[in-house]
Amino acid sequence: MKVLVLNGSPRVEKSNTQRILRPLIGGMRKAGAEVEHRYLAKLTINPCLGCFRCWVQSAGRCHAHRDDMDELLPLHLGADILVLGFPLYFFTFPALVKNMLERLLPAGMPWLVPHPAEPQLITHPPRDDKTRRLFIVSTAGLPGRQHFYSLVQTARQIALMAHIEYAGHILCPAAEALRIKTLWFKQRPFFNAVRQAGIDLVREGSLSEQTQKRLEAELMPGGDQAYIERANAYWIERMARHDITAEPPPEAPLPKKYRRTTG
Known about the structure:
Elements: E1 2-7, H1 16-30, E2 34-39, H2 53-56, H3 69-78, E3 81-87, H4 95-102, E4 113-114, E5 122-123, E6 133-139, H5 149-161, E7 165-172, H6 188-204, H7 209-215, H8 223-240
Parallel strand pairs: 1-2, 1-3, 3-6, 6-7
Antiparallel strand pairs: 4-5
């Protein structure tokens, strides 16, 4: 089985995304998968021009640009699973990922046909009949899984219209907790679950219910409230380094030493 893993974070190796992709890749390789891994921020991928010459002139190859999609598109077409990892930006894909997805246009054909699974939808047929899966890994600075709602809906729609099976996701809210070294020991069960997710994905095609449940464990002792307090204190301290005094709003939770005094 071949897997293409794309990290769409601008922080590349130092990203929270990569902290999760690393054990996921380890699990997939343990299960016997051949894994190709790329950082989108290190590639030159020009935007799609919407000229459609990849449909009528260059037979499934971008006609307008000679860039790193010349390598990436064949890797995608040859992969059984595409894993997209990225931070949640404005509640959906970051620009690096969206730009790459738009350049997958040559994988389709121009004809307008009813979708085989959803006949009420009109789609473009793929150039081949290979079965592919899409799996996403997304991190967010905000706590709470509800912030991923629009992303998951978009990812499912993209997979459907690209004739790719949506194989699931790892959603990691409050992901900045992954950077707190004193918590790494307590986060070990989460990373073990990520590794198991890689094994499940390759062997079963999706995550087991047990693995999915383990992935939803809180990364921060004290839950969302503790995470929010620490985050607000962080921004107070960071602005102070630049001689900026900013008073957080009254409803902003703060740790005890930062709490406002009255009187």
